[in-house]
Design goal:
CATH architecture of the largest domain: 3-Layer(aba) Sandwich
Number of helices: 7
Shape: globular
Helix content: 10-25%
CATH topology of the largest domain: Trna Endonuclease, Chain: A, domain 1
Distance between the termini: 26 Å
Order of helices and strands: HEEEHEHEEEHEEHEEEHEEEEEEEEEH
Strand content: 35-45%
Largest sheet: 7 strands, mixed
Strand order of the largest sheet: 1-2-3-4-5-13-14
């Protein structure tokens, strides 16, 4: 799934309000009397109907006073009971004064890492940190950056095959060889470049064909780390959270991403792939029988290892998933699913 940054932000805001507004109807991208609102929240209490409208500002710059004024007018036009303006980059001076005058709530939301206590050991130990990995290719000349997305870096390196006229290895072994030749390392960044013998080829995982490989470069240094207490899930799956700050009262709270149902408009459909952004897991919906869905975990990297499984789940939990629509991701997932079903 690849959504624009601001669309993802709107989804997060809508999901947070859905999680916290028990019994209320939360709508993402709503239209009221010809006015568009990113999120609306409706509920009845004591025989009265209440409407909260939310505007999201995902930008690299702070929200300006004029934006607050415009939102005040917009929320008044639809007779909103409450108005909330949410920003990723804060608010300029003067915004709080206008917001307080018109009872508008100003909030910021930021992604944070928030591991539960007790997951990591107390002591620090030295470890080798390898980063900024690049593979230089030939015919045509191209440099491919290898990024650690969703914890799949080690798996990708172990499943990318490098061949030369005399040897066959994995990409991680090429990197290990470069570290060995530059040992001992220090806490200072050290750039390393491993030049490959003429005629070397590399075939990345899921690539249709091998490519001529010229070199592999990366940076490395010694860092201090805390080890996991065993047994423990991959900390990536535990650390994601959102920090929500009320600008007027200067108070904040942190919500674990796993408790925020981002797929507030999702319906599970057989034959389609889905993403759980909080857990960074891709799924395939095989079948729906009544209110039970049969799902495959197609891609989940935990401690650098690909983990797959089949399970069933009530369709009422569809709000945990978002349909995958990115063609590059879908192509990769189809290949993984084909191999998974073959093995099963």
């Amino acid at each position: 799934m690849t959504e624009s940054k601001w669309k993802r932000f709107e989804r997060v805001v809508a999901a947070i309000h859905a999680a916290e507004s028990k019994g209320a109807k939360v709508t993402w991208d709503d239209l009221i009397e010809g006015r568009q609102f990113d999120v609306t929240i409706r509920f009845d209490f004591g025989g009265y109907k209440y409407l909260t409208v939310v505007e999201c500002k995902a930008s690299s710059r702070a929200v300006e006073v004029g934006d607050v004024d415009a939102f005040v007018t917009k929320s008044m036009d639809v007779h909103a009971s409450k108005a909330i303006l949410v920003s990723t980059s804060g608010f300029q001076e003067g915004c709080s004064r206008v917001a307080q005058k018109h009872a508008v709530h100003l909030m910021t939301i930021a992604d944070v890492d928030s591991l539960p206590p007790g997951v990591l050991r107390d002591e620090l130990i030295p470890a080798t940190n390898v980063y900024d990995i690049k593979v230089e290719l030939d015919f045509p000349i191209e440099t491919v950056a290898i990024r650690d997305e969703r914890g799949q870096l080690m798996h990708f390196l172990r499943h990318s095959v490098v061949t030369s006229p005399s040897t066959k290895s994995r990409l991680n072994q090429v990197i290990e060889l470069g570290i060995k030749h530059h040992w001992p390392l220090s806490t200072d960044e050290k750039p390393v470049r491993v030049t490959m013998p003429m005629g070397s080829m590399v075939q990345f995982e899921h690539a249709d064909a091998a490519r001529p490989m010229l070199a592999c470069s990366f940076k490395c240094k010694i860092v201090s780390v805390r080890m996991l207490r065993c047994p423990s899930p991959d900390p990536r799956l535990l650390a994601k959270a959102y920090r929500i700050t009320d600008v007027i009262s200067a108070t904040e709270r942190t919500l674990a991403a796993i408790n925020i149902p981002l797929g507030i408009d999702t319906t599970l459909i057989p034959g389609r792939f889905y993403d759980d952004p909080a857990l960074e897991i891709y799924y395939y919906c095989e079948a729906i029988n009544g209110d039970v869905a049969t799902l495959w975990i197609v891609e989940s990297f935990q401690h650098g290892v690909l983990w797959q499984a089949q399970f069933t789940q009530l369709t009422m939990y569809a709000n945990q998933y978002i349909e995958v629509k990115d063609e590059a991701i879908l192509s990769r997932l189809r290949k993984r699913l084909f191999k998974l079903i073959q093995k099963s």
